[in-house]
Fold Germin-like protein.
Amino acid sequence: MFPLPLLLLLLLPYPSSAADFCVADFSGPTSPLGFSCKKESAVTASEFVFSGLGAAGNTNNIIKAAVTPAFAGQFAAVNGLGISAARLDLAPGGVVPLHTHPAASELLVVTQGVISAGFISSANTPYTATLRKGDAMVFPQGLLHYQVNAGGITAVAIVSFSSPSPGLQITDFALFANNISTPLIQKVTFLDAEQILKLKKVLGGSG
């Protein structure tokens, strides 16, 4: 049995040199590991709350879709925690084209409407599903995936990621929204020049 003084010592909070969190300090330097940490004494409870996912995003765009992010750049408290979230709004006819998140896996939960979704494995095997309210689907890190509104009303989903900064690369925009030359795109995609130029015109590319 422990002597009383030792027992009392064991019951005291154990001091730790490790921080419990790293709320982003947007005024400090950044690194591949994320934002600098705000001093704990300057952190308030409100910084652990994000209220932006309750409002619909603006789907008045070419893909009829909107993503409202709660990444480290918008939600300082997720910095360094390995998680983040977003809201996805898909108007009727809306689509999130093939894209990847280089730094995170994704979990999507439908809260309204119907979404057709899927991803393509590194073995080029497609995995597709039709998701309704309450359904969830996971998209492994780095794999091409998509979401399409498959119903007659606006579809809504809440998405979580395994990184505070998941990254995003949309295939169509990577190919046709910049100045990569048309002959080069022909070689790497097997598309004809007429189709490439049409897509560049739609997405703002040149070359």
